[in-house]
Amino acid sequence: MQRRLNGRDILYFGGLAVVLITIILAMYMVDRQWQKMAQMEQLMREQAADIRNIGMQLRTLGRRVESGVNLSSQPETDEGSVPAAFERAHQASQKEDYAEGDWLVRAFGVNLKSLTPFISEDVYASTVQGYILESLLVRNADSLEWEGLLAREWEVSEDGLTFVFKLRDGLRFSDGKPLTAEDVAFTFSFIMNPAIQAPRERAYYAKIETVEALDRLTVRFQFAEPYFNALALAGGISVMPKHFYEPYLQEPNSYNQSKGLLLGSGPYRLEDPRNWSPDKGIIELQRNPRYWGPVQPAYNRLLWRIIENDSARLTTFRNGEIDTYVSRPREYKQLVEDTDLTKKAEHWEYMSPIAGYSYIGWNQQRSDEPTRFADTKVRQAMTYLIDRERINEEIYLGYADVAMSPFTATSKQHNPDLLPRAYDQHRAMALLNEAGYADRDGDGILEDESGAPFEFDLVYFQGNEDTSRMVLFLKDLMARVGILLQPKPTEWSVMIDLMKKRDFDAITLGWTSGLETDLYQMFHSSQIADAGNNFIGYRNEKLDQLIDEARATVDEETRMPLWQAAERELYNDQPYTFLKRSKSLVFIDRRIGNIVQTKLGLNLNSLPVETYVPADQHRYNQ
């Protein structure tokens, strides 16, 4: 039986229609407001760019009437032109599809313990800091020559001991305070203050005698002795704001125990530069609205999500929640053939000329007592027992090269007469027997002369599946000769603490590399004390002398034989078992524009920022 509408029904449906219309109108108005805000934001960015251009022109005019000698060791740019350090970023900004806005979202496989300069000791924190702290010079990714960033001119004395930098005018930190030569001088004095927990940096900067601000824009570095990498050392110092960090000299413990004290002059900044915390599971940087650079970075925000599991990172990348994914070799070929993935992402496969290396470090001193690995024969035997070729073929599927030292095979530092030690179980057993190890009770386990079994823990990062597989493979190799390897999967923050305390038997990690690698930090005996990075307690007087001499030799032809002799000492001593150098197997979402490969690798991490997202590919509005 049908029922006719009465007056009450008509009122009900009429009211409902009014509510729906009101909601639709409200949504329309909100959308209009968002569009208006976006237009205002774009207008403000354009006005800011106009102001920056005016500022550049004024500074150029100002330079024409400055008195004094021209300090430049590189040609001055033409008036009104973009500084050389920003040229690649400027060219990117001129592309037809270039747009500002959106976010670049990546992932870290470890949870960072700290972002505070010097307190943080890993490459992940350094990556974040690079967007916030700036240096005087940067290296051109194509020519590999140095170019001025904070510095616009510099000169070097004939004896190579004095470096004078002229800063650009108009430099500012992200809080609006000016950056001057005083900040550069302060940064050096802060690093060298023994109350600040910066042993690694003090070791490097110890060759500098003084850093002095000659005037507001001129700073002089005076070296105590020649150093082959002096320009990189002085020009690469990350300038810290004196007004922000100086108060911590009165309370150094609060600085040394801090998690996130990070303020600089770079293109990005932390929302709260004093109170970043590692327990948020994400690192977020905002674009610096006061950035002094003539070319602004495209992205409104940079984000790193903390995703420790390899498979979880891949899933997150497939879902479009992160923009990059570094593939494991075992899955790479499959992913390249995955049509759904290749539609949304480009892939890159290359061996970087500055590729770092992985290793096993054998701790030679623990609790002030020598360990079994203090014996050179034992360390040599351990390298002979590790089948690195098989590891690379079966675990890394050929996407890695066996490493022999901190120097790449193509480096001038490498001694071409040296070849990697091949897997040789018989040679290893002979060395172990010479060192006093044998199966004394017939149980299949090697014992030392006191009857103690040859047993050790191997610390490794628990979140890396390939490393876990390698450690299990090593456990089997060691068991074949009667050595008990106990795998010790460990959180990243705990690994750092174990290294500082020297509280481990053996540890597998990796070091980043450079165009020319300085061995001082890792292998010089002076870097054992004061929580230095020689955390395995390795001492070799001859190596110390070679490192000291090489570092003090400016002439390259004379220096390279010294590095090659130092490499031979490492080859003979095996303080590390050098494992591999891996190819980069990288997937990048196709929405990221202007990705190119340079002599330093992909430009995704280049500074100044060169990449962007075209407007029609934007995912994030803020």
From TrEMBL:
Keyword Transport assigned: yes
Pfam families named among the record's database cross-references: SBP_bac_5 (PF00496)
Gene Ontology, cellular component aspect: ATP-binding cassette (ABC) transporter complex; outer membrane-bounded periplasmic space
Keywords for this protein: Membrane, Signal, Transmembrane, Transmembrane helix, Transport
Designated name of the protein: ABC transporter substrate-binding protein
CDD domains membership: PBP2_AppA_like
PANTHER family named in the record: OLIGOPEPTIDE-BINDING PROTEIN APPA, PERIPLASMIC BINDING COMPONENT OF ABC TRANSPORTER
Domain Solute-binding protein family span(s) in chain numbering: 147-519
